[in-house]
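Journal club prep — side note

Before the paper discussion, L.F. wants everyone to see what a predicted structure for a comparable chain looks like in token form. Sequence:
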Amino acid sequence: MAEKTHSSFYEEREQIILDLLQKKGRITVAETAKLTGLSASTIRLQFQSMHDKGLLLRTHGGAIKADYPQHLNNQSDIFDGIVNLDKKLQIATAAAETIHDGDFIAISSGSTALLLASKITDRKNLTVVTDSIPVAYLLLFHTNIKLYVCGGQIRERNGACFGPTSESFFSTVKVDKAYSGCDSVDPDIGITSLDIDPRTEQALVKCAKECYILADSTKFSVKPFIEKILDIKEITCLVSDSELEDVYVEKIKESGVKVLLGSPE
């Protein structure tokens, strides 16, 4: 049997860390060292390497998940480093079909929302408001799209604007549809966020006549976070991928919410 190379061990550790972040949102050096059997200094080095590649964000004593690609030199780069890319592309494609020429829409921050933005650049006379610097950057030079950015302080992990300026902006905006990603979905608890202060996210989704939540099937197995954005019943439509379990589909529908599932591309 061929021995594993150093690089293969490194890639396995990298995947373990990404899986942990996907489930928990944030992890510490100590718990990762315990799980992998490696020293804390080795884990710190791995965290730094993954931070440099845009796979996570270093914090004091640990790391949090990064929810957007950090290198957007051209549109093809938006696919680099996105976790569960196939699932999120299904969602972006399905959600894009609900956006039509002449719509007024809001798009939130996050990798799924960014992929959605990449799917609507051919729409005519489209107006987009966003709290996301990456989304704004991607749509900036499309003259068929009128673009508004809320302003405020920028959150490093996903490039989202937040704070009083952002909240004030969305309180004065009215759009047809809002499209928002999320960190966790629980049919009983609702939509929750990893971020400590999600008031800008709440303001964005509530400025629309219709609210679309973009959540891949793995978000249903993530333990709900403390910060709640919405009750399930406040959603118009939940957009997910083809692997979402039937039990979740039925429970969401029982709340009077539409469910739109993508298809493998």
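L.F.'s comment for the group: The longest strand covers residues 175-181. Keep this in mind when we get to the figures.
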